[in-house]
Each structure stands twice: as C-alpha cells, then as structure tokens.
Design brief:
Layout (H helix, E strand, L loop, with lengths): L11 H14 L11 H8 L3 H13 L3 E4 L5 E4 L6 H11 L3 H22 L2 H15 L4 H18 L3 H20 L6 H17 L2 H26 L7
Antiparallel strand pairs: 1-2
Amino acid sequence: MRSGAPSGTTTADGVAAHFRALIHSGDLVVGDRLPPQRALAKSLGVSRQTVFDALAALEQDGYVNTLRGATGGTFVCELRVPAERWLERLRASIGEFEDVLDFRIGVERRVAELAAARRTTDDLAALRASVTELAASTTLSTYRAADAAFHKALSRAAHNELLERAVFDARAALFFPMDLLDYEPTTSQTAREHDAIVRAVERGDGAAAARAVATHLEHTRTKLHSMLDDHTKPKGSR
C-alpha cells in the first residue's frame, strides 16, 4: 500500500478518496486488511477522527468491512451496493472514459519506452512474476492484483516518479467503472499482451514496447465500450 499523504488527503473525504483510488487501481484487493487507525493517521498526517470518519464512509459505500475482536480489523470487501446508486455514478462519468484512456495510452507508451532503456534485472523479475501471477489467476480479485502489479512494475522500470504517479492516477480513474460492471477479465488475452510488452522491454526495444502497450490499452478501450453498451441497454433488450 502506498504510504504518505497525497495532495488533498487532509480531510475525511480526501482520505476516503485516497483509499478508493487504491482499491480501484488494484493496489488494495478483496481481503486486504488496512493498518490500525492510529498507524493510518500517522502515515497520512491526519487525526484519528479523520481516519475514523473516512473508514465509516468507505464502509457505508460498501468498500470495507470492520470486524471486532482479537482477529478483527478493517478489510477490503466485495462491492455490494444497490445497482441504481452505482449506475448514477457510472452515467455521470461516461464522458471521462475517453479522456482517461487517451491519457493512459500517452503516458504508458512513454513509460514503456523508458522501461526498455532503463530496466534493471530486478525490474524484469518483477514484470515476469506479475505475468505468471496473472496467467494463474482464477478470480477478479487475484486478476486485478496481478494486473496492478504488472503496471506498477512497468512504471517503476521507467525510473521516473512523476510518470509512476500518473500511471497510478489514470488506472484508479479507469478501474472505477470496471468495479461497477461485474467485469469479467479475459485472462489469457491479457497475459499474452503483458508478455509481449515484457519481451520488448527485455530486448530494449522501446518502440515495440510502446506499440505493445498501445495495443493492450486499445483492447481495454474496446472491452469498456462493450461493457458500457451492454449495461446501458434497456431492460429486455440484452
């Protein structure tokens, strides 16, 4: 989990938004346990009351579940929220999809080019491990964790903190609708696309790595549009 307080994370709403982004991006997945409130307050530089209010909001929205007792704590849970409530948010954000995708493609193409030039042995090992993990995934939660690990490893291999943050922000924004739509990942296709990116990075071929990333994200665009079209059809027409 990311440490430190991003810009704007000073209120309960800001802290809640921070954790939503971590969940939407796949940095936090179902079953993950959040640190104790005291530790969160210290790491984020806010009061315990702010953390308490943020976690209460997240629980109300269906992102986390708090269990009492010695083995208790606050855990990321499966989103189980009335569909109409999420659909309202979905409709309000449809116009942002293309902007986010265009931004992601531009940023991650550059990330791939730099990764091909700057990657270390450890970077390549992390990329390979994420591809293996994704290919073996059997649930949405494990798929998203592996997908997040891949894009995080790729952005880290570029060795540019600003680009790494840009990739995280774009992924968090893009995963928002996917959380709402009961997304069924095409695991084998994604694993092949990730593998093609890694092979280009291993060869030091920045142009090929950039093309492979663009192809991967254009397929993501196609899947998103397909899901949106299906989800917004009038009932009875599916």
